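Notebook, p. 212. Picked up where the previous page left off. The plan for this session was modest: take the two constructs that came back from the sequencing core last week, fold each one, and keep the raw output in the notebook itself so nobody has to go hunting through shared drives later. Recording the first one now, exactly as returned: residue sequence, then the structure token string.
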Amino acid sequence: MRSETDLNDDFQKPDDSLLDFLKMFPRMFVHLLLSPLFLMLVLAQCCFSSVIAGLATFLNKFLERQYSASLAYSSLLVGAVNLPAVAVGMLMGGVIMKRAGLSLKTIPRFSVAMLTTSTLLCVPLFFMGCPTQKVSEVNHFQNAQYGSLALCYSNCSCPAGAFNPVCGSDGVEYISPCHAGCTNFTKDPNNTHRVQLYTSCRCISGGQSARPAPCPNNCPHLLLPVILVISLASLIACLTHNPMYMMVLRCVSSEEKSFAIGIQFLLMRVLAWLPAPALFGTAIDTSCIWWKRVCGRKFSCGYYDNNILRNRYLGLQVGYKVMGILLLMMLGWKAKRTQEYSLEKRPDGPL
């Protein structure tokens, strides 16, 4: 039978091992950060994780603003097309890793080839879009009858925070029926609480009427091609997910593997998943050309410059991918030199 002293020693061992780990933590952390292979690989993964963070956070909004898709339909397309493509890419990447037997030397080459292809597929997306529709007093400031648009509704006392877009018969969108100078309306015969048409609109030339809805843009037909291109680019990029994860395990010693994985995910959260959504959000906000206001303060964006929005949102993704590819190219060069040095090294003494 074990003595009480032995039992007390067993209870003390977990505390001692935890204390030893806490003492070793700074040294192991610095040692991993000073490893060129590990550091470049994790930084490359942070670049690609930033792209994923931008897509996961703002892709629905991008599709909604660019192609006049509803938020529900955008979410349906992302869930039905893009996410399965990502899952298939990760699965195929694992199969390729196993069948091809990718080594520490060939993984960076494979990743650079796949990610370069994925980046090139994003180039057509810059041209698959339409400019912002004409909006009165936002990007369209001329009226054929009054010259200045503000004169046609100067007697209407329109509230500064009014935002109820209507589409005029002249093809111009107005912030509200008041800003279109409308003085009458026709109710929907099937629903008396709904307006069917605004009439007697002084600011609208021609028919002088407006529909109670924003004017559609000319790009809804591009929605499906765009989501297919984005999904294909995501599938090809995700082929590198498992190989790069396995490379992390191969570039550190066996006693540091579990610690290296923890540091890897820590750095990815701090360097990618925290700042990337804020950076993408800033890029989107700076493309706003008219803000909704509540109590005189900016509340949310009413209208974006679609060309600037598309170029900044996609350009930021391409920029992250290019930085990641450059890091992987440096990583491949370093891995090649490291492997050649290891092959040349011989143990001392007789064989």
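Okay, moving on. Second construct, recorded in the same format:
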Amino acid sequence: MSREVCVHTWPCSYYLELDKRWVPGKLSLTSCSLKFAGDEAQETLVSFPLSGITAIKKEASHFVFSSITVLEKDNRKHWFSSLQPSRNAAFSVIEHFWRELLLSQPEAPLPATKGKELTGLMACSQKRLEDTARVLHHQGEQLDSITRGLDKMESDLDVADRLLTELESPSWWPFSSKLWKMPSETKLKGDASTASPKALGKEGVVVRIPAVVSQRTASHVKPGSLTVLVSGLEIHDSSSALMHRFEREDVDDIKVHTPYEISIRQRFIGKPDIAYHLISARMPEAIPVLEVQFSKKMEVLGDALTPSSTKTSSPAEKGCSMWHTASGLMDRAVHHEPCPGSQDGQPLQLQTTQPFISEGDAQELRQVPTAPRNPPENLF
């Protein structure tokens, strides 16, 4: 059995209930477990799987120190305090991995009723968020329909104004025929404005995963998602609002710290760079796709394992299939074939490295006789 990959480590203190004291050390999170090792003995004092957790809360010890409490199935409670860089950052990452682990095993029956209730509450919350997103999308379509209706009313008013002008003008007026041709132009304009939002459509989404996002400091994190498109990357917050979009040519480097942690950066001259740090339990699904699109900009730091080498985690096995899916999608896009995510069968254009002129065409161009540089002065 291979060694578990450490996702993140936080310096903190753990409360030993038997000794009634706080022990400094480090809290380590893997994809399946949570461990604490003391600084003095350098040994693991407590370790428990994420699947055995029934609750994770933010509490205060002695009403002063901010702490994170973890409750196991046997009602054993663990206290972690003095978390660095902040309690909220550690809580967001731990809760994200715990939630993804519970949602990834819907068929496995949980013996504890509290675990079933928590899973049901999470599924209900996710369903409500999806319903809210659909309602907001429907309201946006209604606003677009109202805008198109107002544009049509304005064009009808213009037509009525021209008709009244035609009726009021005398029969011998020479420009009366042009007034009858104007409504067709307004109709074309209205058709163009109506078809423009439909022509844009949505880009084909290769993969979308939930993630914990931090932009500048590690202490300020928030839940969100990473969307990998054929033409770039998009980072959204928990309310599906767009935080930032990276075009393919805008991404300067992508660093893989662990199979579950990456950072994306866009460099600038004369102003700060735009960089985002993302941690996700489903990151092994996105890393193969990122390697296909940004092969020359990917950098693996330290002992970060590739998704294919992490055989114990189920998301890693999905990463291999995602590699082939991403490769096929990129090949279809390069050869101008319609992909499943594009609307109306329109091909997605990508930059290719094929030359514009072949060697045979270049040889033919060299054989064409050139015109004389100094034409004759006296033509007649």
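Notes on construct two before I forget. Residues 166 and 245 are 52 Å apart (CA to CA).
Flagging for discussion at group meeting.
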